[in-house]
Amino acid sequence: MTRTVKDIPPFPDYIDGQGDHDFMQAAWRQGPLARDKFGIVSGFSMAQMEAFNDDRWTRQVELEAMWAAGVTSGPMFDFVRDMVLFANGQTHRNRRGPLVRTFAHKVIAELRPGIAERAERMIAPLRGTGAVDFVAEIAGPMPARVIAAIIGAPEKDTDLFARHVYSAIRGLSICSEEIRAESDADMAALYRYVAGLIADRRAAPQEDFLTAYLDRVAGGPLDENEVRAQMVGLVVAGSDTTRGALTATVSQLLLHPDQWAMLVSDPDRWAPAAVSEGLRFDPVIGSLARISTEPREVEGYLLPKGTFVAASMLTALRDPAIYADPNRFDITRSDHPRLHPVFGGGPHRCLGEALARIELEEALKALARLAPDLSLDGPPVRLRGYGAVRTLGPMQVRI
Q1: N or C end: fewer C-beta atoms under 10 angstroms in the chain?
Q2: pLDDT (tens digit, 9 = 90+) per residue, 21-38?
Q3: Number of other CB atoms surrounding residue 204 within 10 Å
Q4: Nearest-CA neighbor of 47 among 386, 293, 277, 321?
Q5: How many domains does the chain have?
Q6: Number of CB atoms found within 10 A of residue 312's CB
Q7: Distances from the Cα of 309 to the Cαs of 45, 80, 348, 388, in angstroms?
Q8: 35: domain range?
Q9: Model confidence, pTM
């Protein structure tokens, strides 16, 4: 007798105080799949992640997540409707193509010296000032300022810019009516700001990223809403995940003084490895959700067309079939896959991977050189959640 979705075991009860990694590992111990109260089917292994991300039988979530949250209009709804991340097929190719060509690897690589200088300018004045809010003073501003500079926003606007970004992104998840209203207001503000930048570049083109992008989409299939949405998406995606990844990586390094000392001893050698391990050990992305486009048997269960499936990043990146001693933070490990799974795969692989790695590496190098005695001033950061982008808690350090 064929087993159905209803036969998939539900997630176990959450134990008060339990960490996300322990919770997801407990779910995995029940079996290869688990089902949550919304009917979303989660897989845990790296093999399941690869299977769930296969475009031959699943597709990217579009507006379904907004509808599930009861959202049918507003700035966040429009953003999801028009943004490349939430599109499939020809629509996805139309939106992604100009970004890929503008976001060429050589163009991004040439940004490294400026990003390194920006990191040092942010960190140097904080030395000797006592307790520092790492998220507010370093991890938050840095990626927001980098991405703002890429699209041509003046430096004086970046703090306001960052506040809009980090508020707006909350609306991508199920949230309270109050947070939804705040998120929509900040998303609308980002749209107005980006629309102003686009108008400026069209009136006075420059030798920069935004002008190049506008040249590529001129006369193409994208409407004006889609053009704006791709730039807003670049800003939102390029800020929040890097903020969380930098904080989580530094937190783990400081919890492992021997590995922090390795980074300090040779930042150029160990920064890339520390970034890869930080992204693996406590990823800022909790899971990758998709929708099945045809019936498919998975692990002995028949999943009908239209099933929401979610590959757990928390467990796949600690899969013992892939990683030796997977629950150990180790910047010397040599078993990372060639393409880091945290950036997704296939046609939807993260466009900003190269930029994110450069930002993370240069931030770690600057901290290692300018603040070799860096230490936690209180508890380590806690990332919370196991779906989509995880919530970032506070972290204080002494520089």
Answers
A1: N
A2: 999 999 999 999 999 988
A3: 8
A4: 321
A5: 1
A6: 28
A7: 13, 19, 16, 12
A8: 3-398
A9: 0.94
